[in-house]
Amino acid sequence: MRICLLEDDLLLGRALTAWLTAAGDQVTWIRLARDFDPATATDDFDALVLDLGLADADGITVLRRLRKTGASLPVVIITARGELDQRLDGLDAGADDYLVKPFDVEELSARLRAVMRRGAHRHGGNGVLGVGDLVLDETRMLTSVGDQQVTLSPTEFNLLRDLLRNRNRVRTRRQLEATAMPDSEGQSLDVHMSNLRRKIGPGVIRTVRGVGYVIDDPPVNRQ
Q1: Span 8-42, pLDDT tens digits
Q2: Phi, psi (5° rounding) for residue 115?
Q3: CB–CB of 33/65 below 8 Å?
Q4: Angle ∠(126,130,132) on CA atoms, nearest 5
Q5: Cα-atom radius of gyration of the chain, to the nearest Å?
Q6: Neighbours of 141 (CB within 10 A)
Q7: Which residues, other chains included, contact 162 with Cβ-Cβ below 8 Å and sequence gap of 6+?
Q8: What confidence tier does 79 reach under pLDDT thresholds 50, 70, 90?
Q9: Higher-pLDDT residue of 27, 72
Q10: Rounded-to-integer distance, Cα 223 and Cα 221, Å
């Protein structure tokens, strides 16, 4: 994996570079935001590890600039900022995952592999998303549960598509409102989510209290 590490701390940067390189990754360590080019990031790297407290810029600003280019490069934030609103700001700005310092380097490596898998899943070529018996066909705008077709409103379809595209990743209320329901005729996210759950059945969408919603992979049956 080609990893860009944007981290200004000398000791941490050296340690992460050494560990990830030993694990088989190719690491480009950049210490200043001005030396990071968002326009070529997706072509040059497979993932970005981004510290929010950079010496010459705030990491959130760097992330927003990256997303404005349309880049889908997976981003894992590493930071000492651990408050809930700070984590939500990072996710809302376009981060794929968030690690609070101090953390285990093996966990960072696992998080990087996870965001890479999610990225590959989101960009599959057939336009069909699903979990369990639930299937959503993006191309034909159809949804079904088992053998039964389910009729969804445009907003309900957008919400379900967003959650399936980001499976196993909590989507905040602000993210869902911005990407899935910009024109919802005044109805709240809670109303749309309640209607969607009623149509696709219980247990598919999980509420993360105080944060948002997520669709998880079904548990593996180990016998």
Answers
A1: 999 999 999 999 988 888 899 999 999 999 988 87
A2: -70, -30
A3: no
A4: 140
A5: 19
A6: 12
A7: 171, 175, 176, 179, 180
A8: confident
A9: 27
A10: 6
